[in-house]
Amino acid sequence: MKIITDWKSKMCLLLVCSTLLFSCKKILDPEIIELPTADNAFSTSADIEKGVAAAYSYLRAVVPDKVFLMGDVRADVFSSYSQSSNVRPETPIATNTAPALIRNGGGNWNQFYTVIAQCNLVLEKIPSIPNYDETLKKRHIGEASFIRALTYFYLVRFWGDVPMNLKSVNIDNLSRTPQADVFNQIKADLDVAIADLQTDYGDGDKAVRATKGAAWAIKAHVLGWLQDYAGCEKLCDSVITRGPYSLVTDTLNLISIFVGKSNEGIFELNFDANLREVQKNLVYNRTLGRPWYKDQSDGGGGTEKFLMCPTRQQLNNMFPPSAVDARLFTWFDRTTYLKGVYDDRIYFGKYKTLQLKGDTSSQNINESNIIITRLADIMLLRAEALASTSVGRAGEAAVLLNKVRARAFATPYTGGGNIQDTILLERRKELIGEGQYFFDLVRTRKLDKDSKITQADWYEKGAWLLPIDQAIIAKSNFLITQNEYWK
After folding, report:
1. Three-class SS of residue 79?
2. Which of 134, 292, 301, 381 shows the smallest number of beta carbons within 10 Å?
3. Which class in CATH covers the domain with range 1-197+455-487?
């Protein structure tokens, strides 16, 4: 993979940012949006603030759509009306076939490397800035390190061995780096973020800019992915006991979590029409129907048959009709669930807070935030770690599991069955639509139990990895090689 990040190329990237959407209110002040020119780029700490803003913007451009498709749809959580008619092009992703994955962007990692290139440039330029307030300097280093770590974490979970570049200027043709080395860099970056960032900045950027708590949370996920459940549990405990987070307790208003910046938000991607942060985002467009989303330019003619949602059987498996669970009528639209209207399409409602004056011709109508991690996620991740054989504290795991259930008035877990399977199901119910479940199934080695990837040796064969687009392989002069399962 050839990564070109020379000065002119980077300036082009920076100038493009002026038309992109930034992720935080403070960064969106007019003087921040005016990005530096080639003559004065990165000469002050304010310029670095603009560079950090660009990194958040690039992250928001790639993560929501990619992670929804490869984290939820690939896990067979969302589907079209049928497998034979009115099928959206995304539905075959769950069958794990190369054409379906490639056609829906599953082979293209280029946008992730745009985020990384921006972080590399910021981190390289920070030492040369004069008169830099030390607290602000540490924050900028921590944020850029956090964003780079999160981006590489997505890359290795999607493709395994990936090229690793830490330079702002690198014209080398890079081969794939072993996952173990990439994970070492991810952990190192997160350790920098943990050391440099504060738990709360109190400046209106709650949850939408990186903090120490966000770095703890992502590193907990990294260690869980690496099967280091003891380390994962300790980091989750830091988030829960030392972070400024609490569960949203207004059960009738759980949707406020996705409006954004709730008490349980740890890190999320901000979307606010007032801050010019709307964009065409197919997470929203794929899952919303009348009365929230009426635009007919999505190829579906505005009909609910083209929407993506769990089937009624899948919902019944998660939320048995006889059981009480407030999330059923919060995560999903009550009317469509009860009446089965529009060919039994059941609207997924987490992201239904749309800008009423949105531009329906370009589908720029979303305002809900995209959640990367929140307190309920980390509570359930800690429960998973506690219940693991390596930690073996199932009683404590049940307490955390029941705290999440209690918020939804769901029946408490009192024992019986496999508590690890119970926690996994709870993660599916709580975090559906947040791009977590495919990663959960791989991490717990249960992908063949609850997806369409059913071969017994799926992990060893690498069936969980995505293929790499042939164009990327060719442009590397075939230094980049295809994942073994897809050869």
Report:
1. strand
2. 134
3. mainly alpha
